[in-house]
Design a protein that fits this description.
The protein is an alpha+beta fold. It has 28 helices and 25 strands. The strands form seven sheets. Strands 10-9-11-12-24-23-20-17 form an eight-stranded mixed β-sheet, sandwiched between helices. Strands 4-3-5-6 form a four-stranded mixed β-sheet, covered by helices on one side. A three-stranded antiparallel β-sheet has the order 7-8-25, with no helix packed on it.
Length: 756
């Protein structure tokens, strides 16, 4: 085999074919690399490979057309197959020679992410997973091209047929979506595929009776199944064709998923077509080698069935590893714990027309079913079941929406597809686009909702210039299945009985005594509250007296940090130290720091009543100070400024006396020193821990399961920073100089051999 391998590999480099292939491949990759990565500044090399899949349609026919067709045309195949080398070694040697040539291109391509890393942050896991998938897909396509080359003596016919097969697999998904999906049409089309299969059997055995008998048997089974369980044929053809789409399997790699199922699929395709190439080669020599057609057919069926069974086994195992940025295709530990702890049976209905599936939504939803025994995912085609969704919602249900149903209690929640993505607007073009995905956040929240007995309610106090909650904060609260409602304490006689949590967000005008009175009554009855203070020039005596009653006092001015405990050269954008507490647990676990802009300092009174516990969970550094004159021209500490450190967030717990026959109650209070903790600009990114602190504060006080509010995941791209002249230099090197040099070497070698 080694001799065949060396001979075949030398043939590529003794002619122009190998040099042209390498040069053309690298030039195309270089063009897209220059456009995507150098010009647009994207740090995602996988975009390049995802775009140049069409190269296989052009290059595989060129590479494989001469493998066996040329041997047959020149009649050297007879000499080759009568040599002491077995047929499978001959075929395998030729295949490995082409793979080696292909790997030369891949090895050069592997340096491209390293080039990008010189100018920015690159996700190497995603980039090299994409290269791996691209390589395996090429290996599978080359095996298909090798097999086709076995079937003809003409290189032209081999190239054309290979091109058509490559094109068909490239367009397979689109073609499948246009085919009829009704049961009868699928039965007819599957029967046509059965005819093609039996014809292949005839080519290997040359026994027409066996082939016809096999077709009759297959058709009888199809008809019986159709009569007994016709729903199995709903869109069956699309599913079958999608399974044969070599191109679709690459999608996971391009998205940053290391997919063992796809790896096994590509290896299976390569092995299957190499084996078929060997069998069909033996068929052409059957008169001389006296090889039984039945044996060849048995081997072919065995290899095919084995490949299918292996792929089915790996599909069940779901051996995938998410290497993408932000873990887009994974579910968090909090979701896993929730799903594994379910007691009720939950069905997630994925409402989508066959062929219109959103791959990202589908991948994430499937994780739930594979994680918990109580979760069942059912796909419902609204075309086939038009009245189904009306049971759960009166809204018009769009493709890729979800309906979560608790089968035990009957409680359900509808998740429209537009809520599963985060949508922003590009103000340069005023076009909307998806900037992130929130499938896990919404779906986990829905599961928690349908399995919860009681849902907490937050009342937000108004009437004192409080900062309104922004949309992202409201959505985050709602994910915990906590509802919100405004409350004017000025007109209310008391805090409503259904109030689980009172929220006061940065008042800038003082409260009246009557308002504080009803808030005190609420707290003395075991109430829970979150208070964000705010710097203001107004007198806030009544409000500050209320805070003092719980052992917390505010410091005049705005805190300025020293010693680098601030963000982006802005000493008023504080980055405090965490003091371990339940409300900082998630942020600490995820390694996210909190950013606290324009904060008042908080101090804890030295003497507290016995029933009161006050602890700080956010502290400034000893170099911090409070700038009393906020209009000062200097950020440095001046006379009159107050030396730190300070608290920026405190947790207050008061144990209340229980009346006879009742359990003791606890009042809980979170006080933070600025409403900007949950400002939209801060919580818009998942980079900071502010939203985690808010969610954990709600969890701590309302006893909602911590971590149930899963943040959305951003699609934000990584970018590189590269000067225009340097980008152009790389473009020239990769598109022209390197491919040109390879072609020149090829011409020199070719001319020298012509002279010999």
């Amino acid at each position: 085999m080694l001799a065949i391998y060396k001979k075949e590999l030398r043939s590529y480099f003794h002619s122009m074919i190998g040099y042209v292939f390498i040069a053309f491949f690298l030039a195309i990759v270089g063009i897209y690399f220059y456009a995507y990565n150098m010009v647009y500044g994207l740090a995602n090399f996988e975009y390049v490979l995802n775009t140049i899949n069409f190269l296989y349609i052009i290059l595989v026919p060129i590479l494989t057309m001469k493998l066996m067709a040329e041997e047959k045309r020149q009649k050297t195949d007879q000499l080759l197959f009568t040599s002491p080398v077995s047929i499978y070694k001959i075929i395998l040697g030729k295949y490995l020679a082409v793979i080696t040539l292909f790997l030369v291109c891949i090895m050069v391509t592997c340096t491209y992410p390293l080039i990008l890393s010189l100018y920015g942050t690159v996700s190497f896991g995603t980039a090299y997973a994409s290269i791996l998938g691209f390589t395996l897909m090429g290996a599978a396509y080359i095996a298909i091209g090798l097999f086709i080359s076995i079937l003809t003596e003409s290189q032209v016919i081999a190239a054309v047929v290979t091109f058509l097969v490559m094109l068909l697999t490239y367009l397979m998904t689109g073609i499948a979506s246009m085919l009829p999906s009704d049961k009868l049409s699928c039965l007819i089309m599957i029967s046509i595929l059965a005819v093609l299969f039996c014809y292949i059997i005839y080519l290997t055995m040359r026994k027409i009776k066996i082939s016809i008998g096999l077709f009759v048997g297959i058709e009888a089974v199809l008809v019986i199944v159709y009569r007994i369980k016709p729903e199995l044929f709903d869109n069956l053809l699309v599913k079958v064709l999608s399974w044969f789409s070599v191109m679709d399997r690459y999608e996971n790699f391009s998205l940053g998923i290391f997919d063992m199922t796809a790896i096994v699929y590509y290896i299976s395709v390569a092995v299957l077509f190499v084996v078929l190439a060997v069998l069909f080669t033996k068929q052409s020599l059957c008169d001389k080698r006296n090889i039984a057609g039945l044996y060849r057919t048995g081997v072919m069926v065995f290899v095919t069935v084995t490949a299918i069974l292996i792929n089915m086994a790996f599909s069940v195992l779901d051996l995938t590893f998410d290497l993408s940025k932000n873990g887009l295709y994974s579910i968090s530990d909090a979701t896993i714990d929730l799903v594994k702890g379910l007691e009720d049976d939950i069905t997630i209905y994925y409402v989508v027309q066959d062929g219109s599936e959103d791959s990202l939504i589908e991948k994430i939803v499937s994780k739930y079913e594979k994680t918990g025994e109580k979760i069942n995912v059912v796909k419902k085609d609204p075309v086939l079941y038009p009245a189904f969704c009306a049971q759960y919602t009166s809204e018009d249900v769009s493709n890729n929406s979800l309906i979560v149903v608790n089968n035990t209690t009957g409680v359900s929640r509808y998740l429209p597809s537009e809520e599963l993505y985060i949508t922003d607007i590009d103000y340069s073009s005023y076009q909307s686009y998806h900037s992130g995905i929130d499938v896990e956040g919404q779906l986990t929240s829905a599961i928690s909702y349908v399995t919860s007995n009681e849902l907490p309610k937050i009342y937000t106090v108004t009437g004192h210039g409080e900062t309104a909650l922004n949309e992202m904060v409201i959505k985050s609260i709602e994910k915990q299945n906590v509802t919100t409602e405004e409350l004017s304490t000025l007109t209310a006689e008391s805090i409503p009985d259904d109030c689980s949590l009172l929220l006061i967000n940065g008042p800038v005008y003082d409260f009246q005594e009557s308002e504080i009175s009803i808030i005190k009554d609420y707290m003395e009855n075991g109430g829970k509250a979150i208070i964000f203070t705010s710097y203001t020039t107004e007198k806030m005596d009544v409000f500050y007296e209320f805070l003092g009653n719980y052992g917390v006092e505010t410091v005049e001015g705005i805190v300025v940090e020293g010693a680098g405990y601030y963000m982006n050269n802005m000493p008023t954008y504080l980055v405090p130290d965490y003091v371990s507490h339940e409300v900082t647990a998630t942020a600490e676990a995820e390694g996210k720091y909190a950013v606290i802009p324009y904060a008042q300092g908080l101090t804890i009174q030295s003497e507290l009543r016995d029933t009161l516990s006050v602890v700080s969970f956010l502290d400034t550094s000893p170099d911090s100070f409070s700038k009393v004159d906020v209009n000062s021209n200097t950020i440095e500490m001046e006379d009159g400024d107050i030396k730190g450190p300070f608290s920026l967030g405190v947790a207050v717990t008061e144990t209340l006396d229980a009346e006879e026959g009742e359990e003791a109650k606890e009042a809980k209070l979170i006080i933070m020193s600025t409403p900007y903790v949950i400002d939209s600009n801060i919580v818009a990114t998942n980079q900071f821990g502010n939203l985690n602190i808010l969610n954990d504060s709600i969890s701590w006080m309302t006893e909602v399961k911590a971590g149930i509010s899963i943040p959305s995941k951003s699609f934000d791209e990584n970018y590189i920073t590269i000067a225009g002249n340097m980008a152009n230099l790389w473009g020239a090197v990769l598109v022209f100089i390197i491919p040109g040099a390879i072609l020149i070497v090829g011409v020199v070698v070719w001319v020298k051999r012509r002279k010999c």
